[in-house]
Amino acid sequence: MVMRSERPVVLIVDDVAENLQVLGELLQPSYLVKVATSGERALKIALAYPQPDLILLDVMMPVMDGYECLRRLRENPETRKIPVIFVTALDSTEDERKGLDLGAVDYITKPIRPAIVEARVRNHLDMKATRDWLYDQNVVLEAELSRLLEILAHHLQEPVRRQFTFAQLLQRSLPKPLNEAAEMSLAQIMDGAVRLRTMLHDVVLYLAACQAPDPSALCDAENALNIAIRQVGHRLEDAGGKITRAEMPSVWLNSDQLTAIFRALITNSIDYRDPERDLHITIMANLDGSDAVFSVADNGIGIPCEFRDRVFWLFERLHADFNRPGTGIGLALVKKIVEAARGRVWIEDSDERGVKICFSLPRRTE
């Protein structure tokens, strides 16, 4: 969690001493007030503990004006989220719009009206306090989620592994031949262990996707797709499937998550293939403005239109046949990852009577 002062800290930036005095005397009874007479000095104070909770910033200052000061505050990850209110004599609509476009949360013109300044400062500090509280709660939840992921990935996997191992040992040690009921029971135990292990693995991936994505992670989608195909290669071969693919662009996403998306979609096509024809999967990508749009299409049994939203629900299975593989997590995982990356996912009809699942992601632009 971020260390914060007990009293809200307000930094006032103005090159005129009288303006600093007026605003300082107005705010000091309620807040811890810091002052700076230049943009350069303001940037240094903004980094020092206790950091400002709010900055009141003049525009017309020598060497570095308020606009440039705000740009630099926004460029620095340590000061990017500090709310800034311009307090300036510039009162044109264009000046106000420029300040707000640069990221200021408010714009106050001089001469100031004390009651209005107090109200706006109070409102923005209240909003920041709420954001800070939400941030702290998110830190706690992230820690709890990480702990849960550790438990799922390690502690719960071990009993499942032991169940499968001892079922195998039991199968080998029992006198042969086994009667049909015993053979079926052992097969069900081992199949259940495999399903549970797969489900735990998918739940770990799903919960990991709930964590905040790294917005600076650039992924080579071509490489991610290659890895996904290798991971499902034996199942694709057993199904007699064939993949046709286009060249993939780079996108902003964690590479493991993009691999998980491709793996889930290819696996879905394998699981729900049409037994009456050879499986054919087509994976394409095209550019749409600042996004890359991917699609994975197959010639399988398809998804009825009325169920195309439900298939993205967690643990949703449209087919009651539990002999068919699947955990009900794969498509929910795809949706979770894509939407966390500010993309979207949807379903279209495939040209080959199956289904086409499309998703968009922000792409790399030179």
Task: Describe it.
The chain folds into three domains: 129 residues, 3-Layer(aba) Sandwich (Rossmann fold), CATH 3.40.50; 56 residues, no CATH class; 152 residues, Heat Shock Protein 90 (2-Layer Sandwich). The radius of gyration is 29 Å and the shape is elongated. A hairpin with a 2-residue loop joins strand 9 and strand 10. It has 366 residues and is of the alpha/beta class. The mean pLDDT is 89. The strands form three sheets. A five-stranded parallel sheet has the order 2-1-3-4-5, with helices on both faces. It is built from eleven helices and twelve strands. Helix 6 packs antiparallel against helix 7. It is an enzyme of class 2 (transferase). This is histidine kinase. Pfam families: HATPase_c, Response_reg. Its EC number is 2.7.13.3. It comes from Paramagnetospirillum kuznetsovii.
Write the layout of secondary structure elements.
Layout: E1 9-13, H1 17-27, E2 32-36, H2 39-47, E3 54-57, H3 66-75, E4 84-88, H4 93-101, E5 106-109, H5 114-155, H6 157-173, H7 180-209, E6 218-220, H8 221-231, H9 233-238, E7 242-245, E8 250-252, H10 255-271, E9 280-288, E10 291-298, H11 330-340, E11 344-349, E12 355-362
Parallel strand pairs: 1-2, 1-3, 3-4, 4-5, 7-9
Antiparallel strand pairs: 6-8, 9-10, 10-12, 11-12
Helix pairs in contact: 2-3, 5-7, 6-7, 7-11, 8-10, 10-11
The CATH topology annotation of the largest domain reads as Heat Shock Protein 90
- Overall 3D geometry? elongated
Write the CATH homologous superfamily of the largest domain.
Histidine kinase-like ATPase, C-terminal domain
As an assembly, this protein is: single chain
What is the CATH class designation of the largest domain? Alpha Beta
Uncertain spans: none
Q: Label the structural class.
A: alpha/beta
Strand content: 15-25%
SSE topology string: EHEHEHEHEHHHEHHEEHEEHEE
Mean pLDDT: 89
